[in-house]
Automatic annotation (TrEMBL):
Keyword Phosphoprotein found: no
Name of the protein in question: Linear gramicidin dehydrogenase LgrE
UniProt KW keywords: Hydrolase, Oxidoreductase
Organism: Streptomyces cyanogenus
InterPro entries listed in its UniProt record: AB_hydrolase_fold, TEII, TesA-like, Thioesterase
Enzyme class: oxidoreductase
Domain of life: Bacteria
Length: 234
């Protein structure tokens, strides 16, 4: 649902697949993922069941880290994307959740964090049931991140596109720049004015940039078609 505002900004011939972790949205009745491995395992069938050609993966905030780990697993299966996009997401080894957010335990503290981060409509804070739902998800996400450990061997042979808001307190330039060490195929960076949810403040600009980056990555992959033809989905 978060990305609905972007849906109509991409080319008509693109096939879009919105991935949703268990415990939220349409899958709200399912148990939340306690570890990154559980999160990836829950998403993997949804991705592999739709691969009929070259594709790109994109994740925002914690979704960027999930998309990175999902890409690692897809690469192990011989199904790598032509591009991985991560947005407002610190490099894996730059996660500081243990120190900065370990005291966010009560609903009031979690609600305050959501308020300060921005991106949550003000009326949500006046709806107890909805606020409880959001803070429950946030608590689970923070727990997952606290249990996450970066793998120093996790360098991808997949191009990376890294996006961030210039005034994002969660993922500024110093925290996202080390993503360059996670790809042997090249990493590009693009920043915009704004905070953690910069892309929803300027959806047309962001969608246009993502489209151009995906097209360029697909063209690069096409120039190496003999390699791609060896993959099951080519």
């Amino acid at each position: 649902m978060s990305f609905m505002s972007l849906r109509d900004l991409f080319p008509d011939h693109w096939r879009l697949l919105a991935l949703e972790l268990p415990g939220r949205g349409a899958a709200s009745a399912a148990p939340v993922a306690a570890t990154m491995a559980e999160a990836v395992s829950s998403l993997l069938p949804a991705v592999t069941g739709h691969l009929t050609g070259p594709y790109a993966l994109f994740g925002h905030s914690m979704g960027g880290l999930v998309a990175y780990e999902l890409t690692r697993e897809l690469a192990r299966l011989g199904l790598p994307p032509v591009l991985l996009g991560v947005s407002a997401s610190p490099a894996p080894h730059m996660r500081q959740v243990r120190d900065r957010y370990r005291d966010l335990r009560t609903e009031e503290q979690l609600a305050g964090f959501l308020h300060d981060l921005g991106g949550t409509p003000p009326e949500v804070f006046d709806e107890p049931d909805l606020l409880e739902y959001l803070t429950r998800i946030l608590r689970a996400d923070l727990s997952l991140l606290q249990n996450y450990t970066a793998d120093p061997s996790g360098v991808l042979d997949v191009p990376l596109a890294v996006y961030y808001g210039e005034s994002d307190p969660m993922a500024g330039r110093d925290l996202v720049s080390p993503w360059a060490d996670y790809s042997s195929a090249g990493t590009g960076f693009r920043s915009w004015p704004g905070g953690h949810f910069y892309l929803f403040d300027r959806p047309e600009d962001f969608a246009g940039r993502w489209e151009r980056d995906v097209r360029a990555a697909a063209e690069r992959a096409a120039r190496h078609r003999p390699t791609l033809q060896g993959a099951p989905w080519a």
